Amino acid sequence: xxxVLLIEDDVRxxxxxxxxxxxxxxxxAHATTGAAGLADLQRGSxxxxxxxxxxxxxxxxxxxRRIRSLRGQSAQTPVIMxxxxxxxxxxxxxxxIGAEDYIAKPFEPRELLARIRVVLRRGQSKVxxxxxxxxxxxxxxxxxxxxxxxxxxDKQLTSRQFDLLVVMAERAGRVLSRxxxxxxxxxxxxxxxxxxDRSIDVHIARLRSLLEHDPKAPRRIITVRGAGYVFAKVxxxxxxxxxx
Length: 244
What we know:
The chain is of the alpha/beta class.
């Protein structure tokens, strides 16, 4: 049974969400402050954190940064941010610093549950035959170990960034719209909203900063104006992608 930690100061809302998650077969714990949530996270093993951005003892973004600074496996716990502020900048910042997803209040419990399940599925290890790594010039994408290397150097991607990179690499040479990318990564098209384009752009910008020699003149992930993005089959050292 997956364990979810909800850090939310609205006790009534938290109770309703926790009850809904338990009815769906998840284990739910609740903390009303950032400090209490961090303490719970350090004491126990959780598969996911639902983090409110407005907490009585500090900003949720600061709490997120403190989660990532923890020692051990707790620091890698996936986080979905909850926001009532309605500011797209909050969502952009959250994605930039490594949150897996966000959802605006008020939200439908079914949508929240669907997003939770998508994130949990990403984190589940799969026992499958060995999947060959994809190589595009100096870039190597190992889907089995979820590792990415450029010229042998490991690159640290969030789970969502890795999934986005894989769906593009598997379709190298094909132009994909932002909506197609969102649907391929996590089925978000059903909850499409005006901020979704920006969230995809944020992830692409982060991937470029990690993988491109010059992010301002990308040669791996190329923008097709008015259409979306295309992952190049032949990249900077002229080697065609293989192992896809």
